[in-house]
Amino acid sequence: MPTTGVTIADIDRVLERGFPQLRFPAALEARFEADTGAKRSRFLLFSGIITFGIFDLFIFRDRLLLSDIFETALIYRLGIITPLALASFVVLWTNPRPWIRESMEAVLTVLIAAGLLYLVTTSRSPMAMHAHYSMLLILVFPNIIQRVRFWYALSASAIVITMYAFGIPHILLMQAPIVFGAVLLLTTTTMLSLIANWMLERDERREYLVGLREKLRAQNLMVANEALSAISMLDPLTGLANRRRLEQFVDTLVGSGRSATKPIVFMMLDIDHFKRFNDHYGHQAGDNCLKMVAETLERNLRVGSDLAVRLGGEEFLAVLPESTLFDGVQIAERIRADVERQAVQHDNSPTAPVVTVSIGVAVVKPDGRLSFAEATMAADEALYVAKQQGRNRVWPPLAGSENDERHPARHAG
């Protein structure tokens, strides 16, 4: 779909004002041609193939009415018009620009009409005066059946009628009253066909606008639903994922089969003495503290693969797919140090003068089945140990992370 800046409001304005000149504003016209051009080219191609099959059948009519110049008629139909038509089919197959597509149809109409007038005015057969009525078909077919765009159809029709009015008086045995009646018949018939052509194109364009408006409404609704869905999976205060998003994330990991071959780290984080901080500095300061920790957590995770979650209150969780215990502890230590470096004053803390965090890390082994409950429980147990060890620390500690036996609560699954 083209990326033109068309809005529902644009469409409503055009529908309200109308388009008597059968032309939209530039952006909407470009969208219209981009959406319908290929289909129209195919329609003109296949209808043209059928048309020229019928056109060449009139050779038998020429044999009866224009017998004295039958060879010339053959050259006109098979040697000139048919090759030109075939060339136009090749161009239509490439889905040309609108003005090329419509101009070709209009020019072919004029050439066919000019060729027929040449034949009927040069023939000395007394039956030639009955051949010129084919001109009706030559104009009605492109105007109503092929529905050549109105302004091109109008131009071609005006040229053909002018040629016809000047040409048919030269047909053998054509008397003035017959000439007048024939010109009047062709003119009025063509006018009616042009009115029909205008109405058909107007209805086509109106139907397109209504359909496009509904399509844009559906797209806007989808975008709005996606936005609402995204919002429903975020914590409103910190902007981190919430429990619903966490469950979806873990389900995706299980469904992808990644947990069967790659370890996954679960990292539980808690702000030390946060209740004391909140009581001492107030809820606004507490909210700012939560945001600071959330930003620090997210900043130290891998974009696109890891997930940071606020579980509630001052408790956070991070999930790190395809990570080892050593990786998890290293990242956790970086997060802990980063929070401490923020130096957010905490005068009511018994363990440190600034805001700090404790972090517990657990890993799901590659040979184990992913159990969300077990993994989070193991990370929570590790967090409990970190708090017992004095807070503002990671458990298991970085120095001993290479030895699985030295530290409890390290593996789940």
Question: How would you sum up this structure, described in words?
Answer:
With 413 residues, the chain is of the alpha/beta class. The protein has two domains: 8-218, no CATH class; 243-412, Reverse transcriptase/Diguanylate cyclase domain (Alpha-Beta Plaits, 2-Layer Sandwich). It is 62% helix and 8% strand. It has helices spanning 8-17, 26-57, 59-65, 70-93, 98-122, 134-145, 150-167, 176-232, 243-256, 274-281, 283-299, 325-341, 372-388; strands at 264-271, 307-312, 315-321, 357-364, 394-395, 411-412. Strands 1, 2, 3, 4, 5 and 6 form a six-stranded mixed beta sheet that branches. Strand 2 (307-312) and strand 3 form a beta hairpin. Helix 10 (274-281) crosses helix 11 (283-299).
**Main β-sheet, in a few words?**
6 strands, mixed
Overall residue-averaged pLDDT value: 88
Structural class: alpha/beta
The residue fraction in helices comes out at 55-70%
Integer-rounded radius of gyration: 40 Å
Distance between the termini: 48 Å
Q: What is the 3D shape?
A: rod-shaped
Taking pLDDT < 50 over at least 5 consecutive residues as the criterion, the unreliable ranges are: 400-413
Task: Tell how many strands the DSSP assignment holds.
Answer: 6
Secondary-structure element pattern, one letter each: HHHHHHHHHEHHEEHEHEE
Classify the beta-strand content into a percent band.
5-15%
What is the count of distinct domains? 2
Q: What is the quaternary state of this protein? A: single chain
How many individual helices?
Answer: 13
